[in-house]
């Protein structure tokens, strides 16, 4: 098998066209809406992680679950794309993989172990706020008070949906939850800053990061947890879902959207994950939602939708705009 950086071509693709008028194509608003919808599939799929983990996977092996979600899917991405990093992209891919996968996954599992799921989900929902601030520092963007404000509304909405009256606050779990949100937040912003090489597909780019993150997880998993004594058919199905769908496919869509969409708006799509997890609790586990939780749902969805747009500045009447 030949591992190369095969160029995918530019807009012209090296083909001479003979048409005299450009073909009719959807407008930029339509294209962005379609890209946003495709990117939103990633957090929707990630919202199934908790249910799959608790119902299908061997208990007390969170690091092994994270490893199985990352490394095999990353290797598959490399095989499908047949591209390896070149030059500076070796260390960039390693940094992004460590932040988005290798650090985020174990911190997420640690927070889930030390905190009720609702508390952990609420901490994760704070990521858009961190991204909005980091975008100013790393990307030199102007602070969007609109998206920052809706990020706060989103955290409140998710908190109303998933936090129960008996929620406990373990200091280690709180630190792990915030550190996990910060790790992926930094990874998201750096992914936006560095972009993606033109000759590398979204699957190849996701494969780089999943492989790098899996290699970061390999030694801690073998030293601290080891392999579960028994891996049955349900566990195999769970690992395949988390790795192929929740790993390679979801991250390909996520990084592809992040390449074009505003970084804070993309981060706000992550609010879908805890909401999907709550919906699955109702559908699968027979849970019920209170009126307050429904209000939280409405707030979170409003934050998600409003965060995708920026209101136009108002102009005074009688003055040139």
UniProtKB/TrEMBL annotation:
Q: Do you know which Pfam families this protein is assigned to?
A: EamA
Chief place where the protein resides: membrane
| Topology of the protein relative to the lipid bilayer | Multi-pass membrane protein
Q: Which GO CC terms are listed, alphabetically?
A: membrane
Keyword Phosphoprotein on this protein? no
Return the Gene3D superfamilies for the record: 1.10.3730.20
Q: Does the keyword Transmembrane apply?
A: yes
Give me the segments passing through the membrane.
Answer: 93-112, 118-138, 145-166, 172-190, 202-224, 236-255, 267-285, 291-310
Domain (EamA) spans 40-162, 173-304
Record's subcellular location: Membrane
Per the record, where are the segments of Low complexity compositional bias? 13-28
Coiled-coil ranges per the record?
Answer: none
Region annotation (Disordered) ranges: 1-28
- Keywords from the named record: Membrane, Transmembrane, Transmembrane helix
Kindly give the PANTHER family that the UniProt entry links to this protein: EAMA DOMAIN-CONTAINING PROTEIN (PTHR32322:SF2), INNER MEMBRANE TRANSPORTER (PTHR32322)
The text of the family note is: Belongs to the EamA transporter family.
Protein name per its UniProtKB record: EamA family transporter
């Amino acid at each position: 098998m030949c591992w190369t950086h095969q160029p995918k071509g530019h807009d012209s693709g090296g083909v001479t066209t003979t048409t005299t008028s450009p073909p009719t194509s959807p407008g930029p608003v339509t294209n962005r809406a379609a890209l946003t919808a495709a990117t939103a599939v990633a957090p929707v799929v990630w919202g199934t992680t908790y249910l799959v983990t608790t119902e299908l996977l061997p208990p007390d092996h969170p690091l092994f679950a994270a490893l199985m979600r990352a490394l095999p899917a990353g290797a598959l991405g490399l095989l499908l794309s047949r591209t390896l990093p070149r030059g500076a992209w070796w260390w960039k891919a390693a940094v992004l993989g460590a932040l988005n996968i290798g650090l985020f996954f174990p911190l997420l599992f640690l927070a889930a172990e030390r905190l009720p799921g609702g508390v952990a989900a609420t901490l994760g929902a704070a990521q858009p706020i961190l991204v909005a601030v980091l975008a100013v520092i790393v990307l030199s963007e102007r602070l969007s008070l609109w998206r920052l404000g809706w990020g706060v509304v989103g955290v409140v909405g998710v908190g109303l949906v998933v936090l129960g009256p008996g929620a406990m606050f373990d200091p280690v779990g709180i630190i792990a939850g915030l550190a996990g949100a910060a790790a992926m937040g930094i990874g998201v912003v750096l992914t936006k800053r560095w972009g993606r090489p033109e000759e590398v597909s979204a699957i190849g780019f996701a494969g780089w990061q999943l492989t790098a993150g899996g290699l970061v997880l390999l030694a801690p998993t073998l030293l601290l947890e080891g392999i579960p004594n028994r891996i049955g058919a349900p566990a195999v199905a769970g690992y395949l879902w988390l790795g192929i769908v929740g790993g390679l496919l979801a991250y390909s869509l996520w990084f592809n959207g992040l390449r074009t969409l505003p970084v804070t708006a993309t981060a706000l799509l992550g609010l879908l994950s805890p909401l999907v997890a709550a919906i699955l609790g109702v559908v699968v586990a027979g849970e019920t939602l209170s009126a307050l939780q429904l209000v939280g749902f409405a707030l979170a969805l409003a934050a998600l939708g409003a965060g995708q747009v920026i209101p136009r500045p108002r102009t005074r009447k009688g003055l040139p705009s």
